[in-house]
Design brief:
alpha/beta, two-stranded antiparallel sheet, globular, four-stranded parallel beta sheet, about 160 residues
């Protein structure tokens, strides 16, 4: 029998708290899938935000922000990523070692010459939490410059990102 709470002239129904239980995802109980995502001719920022969402598990119904419930993502063709405008020359990534004169400024073109996959890794890592959990989530990302990857035994599903 529902109880009523009398507040002045207004009668409000009480909520049955048993039907509104919050469900949490536990890392051991959550099922992780493997996805292969092609970065060929994708815009870097938009692509990275969708991959970061997959790694965090935000697309799942049992998403819990404080647990590792995301999927494993394999990014192929990372060397063919695209940037809009004049970002290849004008954008700068600044690092600082902490020592006097230890500040470095690199353009995406310079980073791309050193490592084909580093730009994609940096963009996705910047969209993950800055904590121990974020570092564990980053471990579920595998980035490769070509179309080949060594994770065939995991039976990854192809996922098209538009």
């Amino acid at each position: 029998m529902p109880r009523f709470i009398h507040i002045g002239e207004f009668k409000a129904k009480s909520v049955n708290t048993l039907s509104y239980k919050t469900k949490y995802a536990y890392p051991a109980a959550s099922e992780r899938e493997w996805f292969v995502v092609d970065a060929n001719d994708q815009v870097l920022g938009r692509f990275a935000s969708k991959v970061a969402s997959l790694i965090r598990g935000k697309h799942k119904t049992n998403y819990t922000p404080n647990t590792l419930c995301g999927d494993n993502v394999i990014v192929i063709n990372a060397d063919k990523i695209r940037m809009t405008g004049k970002k290849w020359q004008n954008k700068e990534y600044v690092t600082y070692s902490g020592y006097p004169g230890g500040q470095k400024r690199l353009t995406p073109k310079q980073i791309h010459v050193r490592s084909n996959t580093r730009l994609v890794e940096m963009a996705i890592k910047g969209m993950l939490p800055k904590s121990r959990l974020g570092r564990k989530m980053f471990g579920n990302l595998y980035v490769y410059a070509g179309t080949e990857h060594p994770h065939g035994a995991s039976n990854p599903k192809n996922l098209e990102i538009k």
